[in-house]
Write a structure and sequence with these properties.
Elements (H helix, E strand, L loop, with lengths): L1 E5 L4 H12 L3 E5 L7 H11 L5 E2 L6 H10 L2 E6 L6 H6 L1 H21 L4 E7 L23 H19 L4 E7 L1 E3 L18 H9 L6 E4 L11 E2 L1 E3 H17 L2 E7 L5 E2 H12 L5 E4 L8 E2 L4 H7 L7 H14 L8
Parallel strand pairs: 1-2, 1-4, 2-3, 4-5, 5-6, 6-11, 7-10, 8-13, 9-14
Antiparallel strand pairs: 9-12
Helix pairs in contact: 1-2, 1-8, 3-5, 5-6, 7-11, 9-11
Bound molecules: nicotinamide-adenine-dinucleotide (NAD) and uridine-5'-diphosphate-4-deoxy-4-fluoro-alpha-D-galactose (UFG).
């Protein structure tokens, strides 16, 4: 039996592939390479010494997915395949709704035809919206999202809960990621955003290697420890291990279960810059700019449920994240090569 990683050539998918293989699972990757490169899959093979079946397909293409399912013995799907740029989703909402919803619907339909009943989904802390106080608990109501990307996560959560209500055999784990950063310690795989990074960490690593002159800090007048935004940064390898822990849990349960994947600790933008400079011995020039529309002052998880039900806790520190993320960027200053 094998685990299908839909969108598995991307940042989180490649790290998760490595951890599944290390834990003894067979994995199959399906990705249309919309936001990734085939080289990333080859790097997974290099790290693990195992060959990984790779299907370059759009997972909303039901026929292509049926071919995959008929050739591979899939018993669990982990669904990473989505578009994730918040600003772009505001400019191109239809593209985001079509891609993110259709990939999910097609996966669910084809899984049912092939008697596959376990589904792990990449959700996001963004579904907590603006009104919930920190720390964020899974039991809190979902809030209003500020952009179509966030709404796709919100809607997919609803689709998956409805699908479970209708199908007593279906088991869904909704993993709400906080802020994944860093890279595998080999430096062979990491985050490779196309164009200007939207997120702070790849921006910092690109400043560190001289690809960009300076970071703009989006506001220093929030009601936080030093006025800058606070987030729950989680090492991508810890996050990947959270998926490995979710699979035996999904085997034991049916229905939809929501689980935060975070550390439970908040770090401000200025604290992140200071940690990065200290650990790596590099200077990160920055200027203070205006607040970014739609940003929260603080977002961090209560991480107790993952510990209780999955037996999983994040282990790596902010220093580990800074060290490993910088190693990836220095070894691959322009990201993955083409092809
Ligand atoms: P990523 O862009 O690196 O990976 C997503 C992968 O999905 C890419 O390789 C892309 O080519 C592929 N893909 C997109 N549409 C596809 C389609 N129709 N068919 C096949 N492949 C398709 O992003 P990531 O950071 O690895 O994120 C993975 C998932 O986690 C996404 O769903 C994202 O929304 C979610 N998530 C990410 C973060 C984060 O900060 N990185 C936070 C919360 C949730
Ligand atoms: N920030 C800067 N400068 C930058 C980029 C970000 O100061 O150039 C600040 C932001 O204002 C925020 C913090 O750094 O305070 C983190 O910002 P990111 O963009 O890295 O992360 P967000 O928490 O805003 O967004 C992330 C994901 C979204 C997801 C959201 C909630 O990118 O997809 O978490 O889960 F919706």
């Amino acid at each position: 039996m094998a685990i299908l990683l839909a969108g598995g050539a991307g940042y989180i998918g490649t790290h998760t592939a490595v951890e599944f293989i290390n834990a003894g699972y067979e994995v199959v990757i399906a990705d249309n390479l919309y936001n990734s490169k085939a080289e990333a899959v080859r790097r997974v093979e290099k790290i693990t010494g195992k060959s990984v079946p790779f299907y370059q397909i759009d997972v909303s293409d039901a026929e292509a997915l049926r071919t995959l399912f008929s050739e591979q013995n899939i018993d669990t799907v982990v669904h990473f395949a989505g578009m994730k740029a918040v600003g772009e989703s505001v400019a191109k909402p239809m593209m985001y709704y079509r891609n993110n919803l259709n990939t999910t619907l097609t996966l669910l339909e084809v899984m049912k035809d092939f008697d596959c009943h376990r589904f792990v989904f990449s959700s996001s802390a963004t579904v907590y919206g603006f009104s919930n106080p920190v720390p964020l608990f899974e039991t809190m109501p979902r809030g209003e999202c500020t952009n179509p990307y966030g709404w796709t996560k919100w809607m997919i959560e609803q689709i998956l809960m409805d699908a479970c209500a209708a199908d007593p055999e279906l088991s869904v784990v909704l993993l709400r990621y906080f802020n994944p950063i860093g890279a595998h310690e080999s430096g062979l795989i990491g985050e490779d955003p196309q164009g200007t990074p939207n997120n702070i960490f790849p921006y910092i690593t690109q400043v560190a290697v001289g690809r960009r002159p300076q970071l703009t800090v989006f506001g220093n007048d929030y009601d936080t420890v030093d006025g800058t935004g606070v987030r729950d940064y989680i090492h991508v390898v810890d996050l990947a291990k959270g998926h490995v822990a979710a699979v035996p849990y999904a085997e034991k349960h049916t229905g939809a279960e929501i689980i935060n994947l975070g550390t439970g600790r908040g770090t401000s933008v200025l604290e992140m810059i200071a940690a990065f400079e200290r650990v790596n011995g590099v200077k990160i020039p920055y200027v203070i700019g205006a607040r970014r529309a739609g940003d929260l002052a603080e977002s961090y998880a209560n991480a107790d449920k993952a510990k209780e039900v999955l037996g999983w806790t994040a282990e790596k520190t902010i220093e580990d994240m800074c060290r490993d993320g910088y190693r990836w960027q220095t070894m691959n200053p322009m990201g993955y090569p083409e092809g």
